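Before a colleague's protein record goes any further, I have to sign it off. What it holds is a sequence and that sequence's fold in token form. Would you go through it and say whether the fold makes sense for this chain? The record follows directly below this note.
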Amino acid sequence: MPYSPEQIHELDVLIRYKLDSTYQGIKVHKTASPETIEAVKRLYQKGLITQIDGGYLTELGIKAAEHAQTLLLMLGPAYEKAS
């Protein structure tokens, strides 16, 4: 089953979070793309972030962002060379 466009947009949001500090969140402004705004709303509804316009990652959100960011690294061209 392939990722849906909505899931891809959610993953794009999750990889924007910096994981080295839980005190750093994101704010999605009304000038962002409609797909990004909707993705952030869905992440909030799923309990992965604290605010409907971004905010901080929840505990579940931290896990999701870690997985999303790891997957991005693993699928990147440099990963194969590093192995």
Observations:
- The chain has four helices and three strands.
- The helical segments are 5-14, 34-45, 59-75, 77-82.
- The radius of gyration is 13 Å.
